[in-house]
Specification:
3 domains, Rossmann fold, Alpha-Beta Plaits, 16% strand, alpha/beta
Length: 375
């Protein structure tokens, strides 16, 4: 990604119409980095993975997760950044006023009618991107996560960089440990916002209880936390993580229907491992280790230098998947076929392609024979 694109505000456009998505990208692409999603479920996943998105444009009627459901997920999110995002609903001429009022009551920020003019889209993008930027700047100034009282990502970076610089200058150890509640979205969807927030707060409190005075703790995402551990080598970092996980794993949450526990996974990196040149490099390594722990079926704690074999999930492709892939091919929407399905689709197509090649060879042979007879 170029430096120019990095500085652009990021906008998410969610619509099951390819025409609408591409039209929005064409109108806004020169001034904004545009992310496209063909349904609400994909849009929701993008929002959770990208904290830089500042405005959402969404259709209402979509498969898998409708615009209304996407809006409800956004407004009830345990992540303040997501919950406060401007959401502009793209409506059609046949949408009723009562329907619009219902969406507005659910938390829609604004509306734009389809087919939209460029000025309508650009003016709303400009206004709400500026608003989001101001909100983010205010959050950075406070430095603390509202829900847990821990540092936010901005203050973690500021204080962590200072701690790393001190450790580097005095040849001291320092480590970064990243934690995440595994499958947290399932808790949110199954038990609701109140239970989800209770889990987030309780985990944050346990982190504060086990950390030392010199440690730095932060909440980085919906269910993601970090600890910066000055004067702590790899072995001691493993002990800290064990202590944290044991404390978290003792928590039992009463949902009103059943009692549940959370699975807390971790990834970490220590300065005595790789001789990192910066705080950013150390935290990137901790993040990499955390992502490996999240997808591992055997390891809950992974060090950046650990060589762990990650089990690749088995891809099950149904006849319905194949039929859908053929439909995409006929419609020219090749990009909508998942990469994991391509090999199977090609395999299914192979007999037809062989047949077509044989027929073409036969036609050439017949033409050649007719030419010889004519001569």
């Amino acid at each position: 990604m170029s430096e120019e694109s990095v500085n652009k505000p990021e906008i998410l456009v969610v619509d099951d119409s390819k025409v609408i998505r591409l039209a929005a990208k064409k109108m806004l692409g020169s001034d904004y980095e545009i992310h496209l999603a063909e349904d609400g479920l994909i849009g929701w996943e993008m929002l959770q993975q990208n904290s830089n998105i500042s405005v959402v444009f969404s259709d209402l009627i979509m498969p898998n997760l409708s615009g209304m459901e996407l809006l409800e997920n956004i407004r009830s999110s345990g992540d303040d950044h997501i919950a406060n995002l401007p959401v502009i609903i793209m409506t059609g001429h046949d949408d009723s006023e009562s329907g619009k009022q219902k969406v507005f009551d659910a938390g829609a920020t604004d509306f734009v009618s389809k087919p939209f003019e460029s000025i309508d889209l650009v003016s709303r993008a400009k206004s709400y991107a500026r608003l989001s930027r101001k909100v983010v700047e205010l959050e950075k100034k406070t430095g603390y996560d509202k829900l847990t009282g821990l540092y936010n990502a901005h203050l973690l970076e500021e204080q962590g960089a200072k701690a790393f610089s001190f450790a580097d200058r005095h040849k001291l150890y320092i480590s970064a440990a990243y934690f995440e509640i595994k499958d947290f979205q399932d808790f949110f969807l199954n038990y609701g916002k109140n239970v989800a927030q209770h889990i987030i707060v309780a985990v944050g409190k346990r982190l504060q209880d086990v950390m030392r005075e010199e440690d730095i703790a932060a909440r980085l995402g919906v269910a993601k936390y970090a600890l910066i551990l000055p004067m702590t080598n790899k072995h001691k970092t493993e002990l800290v993580i064990t202590r944290v996980r044991e404390s978290i794993n003792k928590l039992v949450f009463d949902t009103g229907k059943e009692k549940i526990r959370v699975n807390f996974v971790a990834g970490y990196s220590s300065s005595d491992l790789n001789g990192e040149s910066s705080f950013a490099e150390m935290t990137e390594q901790a993040e990499d280790a955390l992502q490996r722990a999240i997808i591992s079926s055997t390891e809950s704690v992974i060090c950046f230098d650990d060589e762990i074999e990650i089990d690749e999930p088995e891809v099950v492709i149904t006849e319905q998947d194949i039929e859908q892939a053929f439909t995409h091919i006929l419609e020219g929407n090749f990009y909508q076929i998942p990469e994991t399905h391509l090999a199977t689709v090609v395999e299914r197509f192979s007999p037809f392609m062989q047949y077509a090649e044989n027929q073409a060879e036969l036609e050439l042979s017949d033409d050649s024979t007719e030419s010889n007879i004519a001569l």
